[in-house]
Design brief:
2 domains; 5-stranded parallel beta sheet; 11 helices; 5 strands; binds iron/sulfur cluster
Length: 264
């Protein structure tokens, strides 16, 4: 609140909700209820990037949440489960916000293969239970493009084709499913999902400040992969994890003022 310089917000979200027990964690529920009773927020919600179906269903069951913000895009490999959970929550009256709708915005690190972001957003809006989106826009051009899309929701066959991998042989893109299966495989216990999110913010969204902030939250040790002769992580997306970790962790040491000046 202090950061926002305001005394009240419309929606206050519990970020990074995942497992059911985290959404049901009583001390947090009590704090959030108090927050609402004091008039500091009109609505309560959760945000979820991982174990989304579980988190969404839990939010609907707790009884205090009004809104769910979930990662939702054409690249999610558990979309059926997410859709069912969303339907369940919407049926209980919760508002559903889709985020990460552009799935990283590029298929490749070099940004030679942009994802058709109009098609990606239209794909999201085909689900009648998605009530609004956070479409990762960071310029007025992108904002106008998104607004323009509101005139025509139809997802043509041509647009559907644009949402397939451009070529079979290419890498799996830069969108990490946030499934967490890599964490127990890494002997150093690196927070690989968060590091991969940082990677996507840097190379896909071109938002270095957000990428660096996210990377810091992963608390990556110095020389994270030293001592590992071969990477033991078998990522479900086929990512070369060691390579990506060593690539993006360089960002940690770039001075913040330099990053900020790149946006000036
Ligand atoms: S890096 Fe791979 S295994 Fe790890 S969370 Fe992302 S998609 Fe899952
Ligand atoms: S190379 Fe890095 S990411 Fe892979 S298992 Fe070793 S420490 Fe973990």
């Amino acid at each position: 609140m202090l950061l926002l310089n305001t005394i009240r917000v419309d929606v206050f979200r519990l970020g990074f909700a995942a497992r059911r027990e985290s959404v049901f964690f009583e001390p947090l529920i009590k704090a959030l209820e108090k927050f609402k009773a004091q008039g500091k927020t009109r609505y309560l919600g959760i945000g979820t990037h991982s174990f989304e179906p579980e988190a969404i269903r839990a939010a609907a069951d707790v009884g205090i949440y009004d809104v769910v913000m979930t990662a939702y895009n054409f690249r999610k490999n558990n979309i059926q489960e997410i859709n069912e959970a969303i339907e369940y929550a919407a049926g209980k009256g919760l508002g559903i916000i889709a985020m990460k709708t552009m799935a990283g915005a590029y298929w490749d690190r070099e940004r030679t293969q942009p994802i058709n972001t109009k098609a990606a957003l239209k794909w999201v809006l085909q689900n009648k239970n998605i009530h609004t989106t956070v479409p990762d826009c960071s310029s007025f051009d992108q904002l106008y493009q998104d607004l323009d899309l509101m005139k025509d929701f139809e997802l043509t066959d041509e647009k559907k084709r644009d949402l397939k991998l451009p070529s079979e042989g290419m890498s799996a893109g830069i969108y990490c499913q946030q499934c967490g299966r890599c964490i127990p495989q890494c002997p150093k216990g690196l927070d690989i999902p968060t590091i991969m999110r940082s990677y996507m913010y840097a190379y896909g969204h071109k938002n270095l400040a957000h990428a660096q902030q996210t990377l810091k939250s992963a608390k990556v040790p110095d020389a994270p992969c030293s001592g590992c002769s071969t990477c033991q992580v078998d990522c479900i997306m086929g990512f070369d994890i060691r390579n990506k970790v060593s690539d993006i962790t360089r960002l940690r040491d770039v001075p913040e003022d330099l990053i900020r000046s790149s946006f000036a």
